[in-house]
Amino acid sequence: MNHSDKLDLAFAALSDPTRRAILARLAAGEATVNELAEPFDMTQPAISKHLKVLEHAGLISRARAAQSRPCRLEAARLQDVARWLEAYRNLWEDSFERLDAFLQSTQVPAMKGKKNVRS
Fold this sequence. Notes:
Layout: H1 3-14, H2 17-26, H3 33-37, H4 44-56, E1 60-62, E2 71-73, H5 75-106
Antiparallel strand pairs: 1-2
Helix pairs in contact: 1-4, 1-5
């Protein structure tokens, strides 16, 4: 799978608010599926489907413990997403700065000492 495909999967996974909330929870530390399901009005199988999407995107991993599969955040993929976003943020900021400089250069200087004359 190439870098672009990995980013596509990550952005698709991040597009869902439930999955973003799961990632926010995992940022505090690993958790079981049942622990992740608690704050949501969803069944455990529904949460498991969200976890599969996150795992396929490389955003989480699931360990094999005795009777549970604790989930943990995989920050490296989020860092890939952040680097991609940062590159485009820099591009847009540079464009806006050039636009601002151009607009500043085209402004007519204020007329000093002249009063507005009305008829």
